[in-house]
Amino acid sequence: MDGGSPGKVADVYLEGIRASSFAGRAIPARKFVDGFDFFPAGELSFLSGPGGGGKTTVALQLAAAVAMPIAACPQTHWLGAPVGVRGPVLFVSCEDDEFECQRRLEAASAAEAFDLRDLRDLRIYDLSARLDKAMLVSPQRHRLVRTPIFNAFEEQIAQIRPALVIIDNRAQAIVCDEIDRSLATRASNIFGHLAKLYDSAIVILSHPSVAGIANKTGASGSTAWTNTGRSTVYMRRPDDADDEGKGDGVDDGRRVLISQKSNYGPTGRRVNMVWDCGAYRCTDKPERAGSDIGKADQAERVFMKLMAIFQQRGIDLSANPKSGGSYAPNLFFTDAREGLTKPQLVKAMHGLIDKRAISIVEIGPPSRAKKVLKLTGEADASKS
């Protein structure tokens, strides 16, 4: 409503894009900040991890790798993989003060042999001592407002146009009921809008809930947080670590980064690392050149073999990742998969569907019909 004409709806003009205009048009290459395709450029992502688990350190390592000037270092790496985007970085710290950030960066520079004097494009914003550190607040139910801190923050982004923005952390920067779906969606949309408007990757660090730790998703609050962001990565101790109820409880420094959600690639990507000399380093063996030759054929062969085994067992399989326990790659990942990763199994499933070697068919009465995966021969038989 505008103030001069009560009852009049403000004019909004929407212009559709004809799909025919896409024909022959060049598409910009999709870019990721890191070398593992965790954090897409120009989008909002989340990095979740338990308190004291090392996510601030690993985030500062990423910030340093992106902010290092190309003139000082033509190629930089994060956890052993070359970063995909270079440029200014803004690091907003709501908990650790500037001296703690300095300690972490000095340790990382010693471990990774870079000079802190080259990091003039990495700006640390220390909000740790402020009481009014929140960027977004919810003064009342279902209402979210921007604070002066947010406005100043946006001015910095507009002026600097950073390649990467890291906010540590969500609970401090966004003060609202985290289980309120509308607030979670609104908050994520605001930061996602900033990311697209200024072509800056925004990564917000967060803490998982007790349930998020127990089920190893890293989630906390409404699912709208991760649903609205383009990517969610969970940093935790590995499955065989002492916090899983084994050993004497001593932290051996090992961590894993796991892609829990990715709109632009497969989920389940896993990077193993260990804390060493003040920084995290990847412990995964680098793949040999040409080591992926034949992997696609192998994955499809194994997928077909497991399809036949599971159908003989009478187990329904689904191609829908939201189906949980019946999602074929999840089930196959715990079986005789011959060392294949979950992303390879997902890719094999899609390839076999495209080749019509397997099909998605609807079974059961119309009132309770469900879609399942079948070998194409059996799918044809079930339709006849």
Question: How would you describe this protein?
Answer:
Helix 1 crosses helix 2. It is globular and about 65 Å long. Helix 2 (about 100-110) links the parallel strand 4 and strand 5. By secondary structure, the chain is α/β, with parallel strands linked by helices. It has two domains: about 45-280, Rossmann fold (3-Layer(aba) Sandwich); about 295-384, Arc Repressor Mutant, subunit A, CATH 1.10.10. A nine-stranded mixed β-sheet has the order 5-4-8-10-1-11-12-13-14. Strands 7-6-9 form a three-stranded mixed β-sheet. A two-stranded antiparallel sheet has the order 2-3. The chain contains eleven helices and 16 strands. It starts with about 45 loop residues before the first strand and ends with a helix. Mean pLDDT is about 85; it is low at about 1-5 and about 245.
TL;DR?
This protein has helices spanning 55-67, 98-112, 148-160, 170-173, 181-197, 210-214, 224-228, 295-312, 328-333, 342-354, 376-383; strands at 44-48, 77-78, 81-82, 89-93, 122-126, 136-140, 143-146, 164-168, 174-175, 201-206, 231-236, 254-262, 270-276, 279-282, 358-363, 370-375. It is α/β, with parallel strands linked by helices. The chain has two domains: 44-282, 3-Layer(aba) Sandwich (Rossmann fold); 295-383, Orthogonal Bundle (Arc Repressor Mutant, subunit A).
Salient structural properties:
three-stranded mixed β-sheet; Arc Repressor Mutant, subunit A; 2 domains; alpha/beta; 30% helix; Rossmann fold; nine-stranded mixed β-sheet; 384 residues
